[in-house]
Design goal:
single chain, 17 helices, five-stranded parallel beta sheet, 464 residues, five-stranded antiparallel beta sheet, alpha/beta
Length: 464
């Protein structure tokens, strides 16, 4: 018997009958502040039907494997070895050039420690590298003597862009990518950099590179309207365009600003949805905390992955689902479009699925602890949606989009950020960069030609 799982519910949807690794092995999802450094979480499989199912399994396929913390795999192995003498074959797939396990506030060493490559089991894996781009190979094979010059140019552009993505993922200098870190003499000769920037590069971590995107078209931060008009022709909101045209940013703050900007273009009437908040696990017999928890106070309590206390939506808004809803077969980060408002729910249609589905999303319960007091847990009952005209690099992983504007004014700050952002589109003509003026420097290729220079972080220990 074969079982399939993936690091995220969105990736799991690509395989019939698949689920997340957390769900397959019943590995608990624990808040960072609730983790006990002296206690290793265990898979809750004892006496369950899931354990009976796994004991009959011989092959487990695991997609997006590098994105999961090694603790999940190690916990699963320990539990399976405890209950059965069967030999399991794990077929694990993933790209170590993409985003690694997220360690909140973690250093490079802590992130690498969380990777499967740091596990004692890693030496038991037989590694197979996939080195051919089958899509580009297919395009090349489609050319013939009868192909037009336009068709040949298109294929060549796609080939060059695929090579650029590989170079970016490795921080490898090429015709399209100028890797500047460690090339200070060459850099000074070719680029008009200030002494301050040179000093900054020298002091940077060895994994943090400045890369020049010599062939990339861009907008500057004083051209937001032009950038939006490129994404939405003539600056007019079009629901069909919004379905697959996204602005990618490194921070939730930037995502929020872009979402508000694009939503304002939507001519439909706005409707507000208010959450119901309450404190849990606190000594509040006199209801003091309950009485001070006004809507104004609640609106200031937010956490990544949890909807805000107030949500403002319009018909035709494009959103992502913030929580997996197995009963509705909806995965976290699934993109949907709002088509109607009901009294206590929102009607949406799914996007990027083989068959469009219409679903009514009810309010559901979210629980999270407040950062200033670990004993204070807030329960929020709210619609599990967030606007998705813009999203973070992390949220975009596993998404395929038609047109992307990459906001690099807040630069990539983690391994794989830039690579994930630039690889969301299949056509190199459908990506643009949004940068500050001080991120533009002389390309050194043609007189007066400027190119955007951004940070690219690659952990060489991971990709070698």
């Amino acid at each position: 018997m074969i079982q399939c799982c993936a690091a995220t519910t969105l990736a799991a949807l690509l395989f019939e009958g698949a689920t997340t690794a957390h769900s397959l092995f019943r590995y608990p999802v624990i808040e960072e502040i609730d983790k006990d450094p002296e206690f290793t979480p265990q898979c809750n499989l004892d006496g369950s039907q899931r354990l009976d199912l796994l004991m009959e399994t011989t092959v487990i396929f695991w997609d997006e494997f590098p994105s999961n913390d090694r603790e999940i795999f190690e916990a699963a192995i320990r539990k399976l070895e405890q209950w059965t003498k069967n030999k399991f074959i794990f077929v694990c797939a993933g790209d170590f050039h993409q985003i690694l396990p997220v360690v909140q506030g973690g250093s490079k060493q802590e992130v690498i420690k969380a990777c499967i490559m740091s596990s004692p089991y890693w030496s038991k894996f037989h590694k197979i590298k996939l080195v051919e781009n089958m899509r580009v190979n297919g395009l090349l094979k489609s050319l013939s003597n009868e192909s037009t010059e336009e068709e040949r140019n298109f294929v060549e552009e796609q080939k060059q862009y695929s090579e650029f993505l590989v170079d970016l993922s490795k921080n490898r200098a090429s015709k399209s990518l100028n890797v500047l870190h460690g090339m200070f003499i060459h850099m000074i000769m070719l680029f008009e950099y200030s002494n301050k920037l040179v000093k900054m590069l020298i002091e940077n971590d060895v994994d943090s590179f400045k890369v020049g995107l010599s062939n990339m078209q861009y907008f500057t931060s004083d051209q937001p309207n032009q950038a939006i008009e490129w994404l939405y022709p003539e600056g007019i909101f079009d629901p069909k365009v919004a379905l697959n045209s996204v602005i990618l940013s490194s921070t939730n703050e930037a995502v929020g600003k872009w979402n508000e900007t694009i939503q304002e273009m939507n001519p439909n009437e706005k409707r507000r949805f208010e959450a119901r908040d309450s404190f849990d696990e606190v000594d509040d017999e006199a209801n003091i905390l309950k009485n001070i928890l006004t809507d104004k106070v609640s609106s200031g309590y937010n956490k990544n992955g949890v909807p805000s206390h107030f949500l403002d939506f319009k018909i035709d808004d494009v959103c992502i689902v913030l929580r997996a809803l197995p009963s509705l077969e909806l995965a976290t980060n699934t993109r949907v479009q709002i088509v109607g408002f009901l009294e206590h729910s929102i009607k949406v249609k799914t996007l990027n699925e083989p068959t469009t589905r219409y679903i009514c999303l009810p309010r559901i319960t979210f629980k999270f602890r407040l950062q200033y007091g670990e004993s204070y847990q807030l329960t929020r009952v709210q619609i599990p949606l967030r606007l998705a005209y813009s999203m973070t690099y992390n949220k975009s992983q596993s998404q395929t989009l038609d047109r992307v504007l990459i906001d690099c004014t807040g630069e990539p700050f983690a391994h794989g950020h830039a690579y994930v952002a630039f690889s969301r589109v299949r056509n190199c003509k459908n990506v643009r960069v949004f940068v500050n003026e001080d991120q533009l420097h002389d390309s050194g290729i043609r007189p007066g030609e400027m190119m955007p220079v951004i940070t690219n972080i690659v952990y060489q220990e991971i990709i070698k």
